[in-house]
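Hypothesis: this fold can be encoded by more than one sequence.
Test: take the structure tokens below, design a sequence, compare later.
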């Protein structure tokens, strides 16, 4: 079976490719990625010579490139490609619309023209907006996005469902909660805070630090996507969660404790604009219908994740001191 994995050089896409190629020889994986700041082929070094894996540098918002790759006998498209960072979307929404909305539409359209057997749109729990102190997002929760990022992902979901309803394209949408694990770009909470702590740099906690996210290991997300690919029903949405709600300050203190670093590294800074207070996922549908469940427990997986960034310092040091040096110098400059 030939899979077109878009955005496979990013955090979750690369974890998915590594995991699927390890599990089975039945898959041929074509990784189609334009390599933005977040795309990193070093994540895939261990499979670059694997005959079941190939890489094409291309933009999902480029109609010709998408048309060419889709003609190569693809069975299943899994669309991870996106601009994914909420803070960047608040600073500059434009690329989020181009990639997340227009790019997804071009992929859907080319998938339709080529009679693709299944199109999996990797979405997010952020499409549901923010929860109060109780309750969980189900697949029927109203769509109520807050940021330009989540609004662009919601638009892509609606387009994907429209292609199912209007043209009968077999589309499935997955909406997962916050991922963590190896190879996450160190702009997101967990890898930023682990690597800052390792460098004895300040940890910028937004607002009062009491916002809640439901954390899931990227390999559990990968196994959920595999379950959806094998047995999911076209036209359906599947929520994926880790059943591990934590406040940001709990995460921060856990990282500092694990690394034996002082709480004096914490800096409470200005809140993110439109900051969603709480996300929490009801995964009953995927668990009962497809028999999936997360394998990782939060504390054990966090300990492994902290260890991974500690041992793979060259991976993130290259990012933080190389091309993106100014991004981090600017960040630390604001905190000192
Ligand atoms: P990421 O930012 O780490 O990686 C995104 C990848 O997409 C990069 O390799 C980048 O080069 C590529 N890309 C960006 N624009 C592209 C374009 N126009 N054409 C081709 N490739 C392009 O993101 P991630 O955290 O791995 O997220 C992957 C997907 O999962 C996204 O769709 C995101 O919305 C979704 N998601 C993320 C999380 C999370 O916690 N990170 C949770 C739920 C859903
Ligand atoms: O819920 C799924 C979403 O999770 C994905 O769709 C997004 O692609 C992914 O980036 C993530 O979005 P969040 O905004 O929840 O993740 P982030 O790591 O940016 O922030 C997590 C929480 O930590 C959030 O409440 C903001 C806070 N935070 C973040 C950063 C980067 C801080 O307090 N300080 C920081 O420096």
């Amino acid at each position: 079976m030939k899979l077109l994995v878009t955005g496979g050089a990013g955090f979750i896409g690369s974890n998915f490719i590594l995991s699927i190629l390890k599990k089975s020889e039945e898959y041929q994986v074509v990784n189609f990625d334009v390599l933005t700041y977040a795309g990193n082929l070093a994540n895939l070094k261990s499979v670059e010579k694997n005959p079941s894996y190939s890489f094409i540098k291309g933009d999902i918002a480029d109609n010709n490139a998408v048309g060419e790759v889709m003609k190569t006998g693809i069975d299943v498209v899994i669309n991870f490609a996106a601009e994914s960072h909420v803070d960047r979307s608040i600073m500059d929404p434009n690329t989020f619309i181009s990639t997340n909305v227009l790019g997804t539409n071009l992929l859907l359209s080319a998938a339709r023209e080529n009679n693709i057997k299944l199109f999996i749109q990797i979405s997010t729990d952020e499409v549901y907006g923010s929860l109060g102190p109780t309750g969980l997002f189900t697949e029927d929760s109203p769509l109520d996005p807050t940021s330009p990022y989540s609004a662009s992902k919601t638009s892509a979901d609606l387009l994907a469902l429209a292609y199912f309803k209007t043209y009968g394209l077999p589309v499935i949408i997955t909406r997962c909660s916050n991922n963590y694990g190896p190879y996450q770009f160190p702009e997101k909470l967990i890898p930023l805070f682990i690597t800052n702590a390792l460098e004895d740099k300040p940890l910028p906690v937004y607002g009062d630090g009491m916002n809640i996210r439901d954390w899931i290991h990227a390999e559990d997300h990968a196994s959920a996507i595999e379950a959806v690919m094998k047995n999911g029903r076209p036209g359906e949405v599947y929520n994926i969660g880790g059943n591990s709600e934590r406040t940001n300050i709990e995460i921060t203190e856990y990282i500092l404790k694990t690394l034996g670093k002082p709480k004096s590294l914490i800096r409470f800074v200005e809140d993110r604009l439109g900051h969603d207070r709480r996300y929490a996922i009801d995964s009953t549908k995927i668990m009962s219908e497809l028999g999936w469940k997360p394998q990782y427990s939060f504390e054990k997986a966090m300990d492994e994740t902290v260890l991974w960034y500690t041992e793979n310092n060259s991976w993130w040091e290259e990012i933080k001191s190389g091309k993106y040096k100014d991004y981090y110098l600017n960040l630390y400059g604001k905190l000192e």
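Residues 42 and 315 are 8 Å apart (CA to CA). The chain has a mean pLDDT of 97.
Hypothesis status: open.
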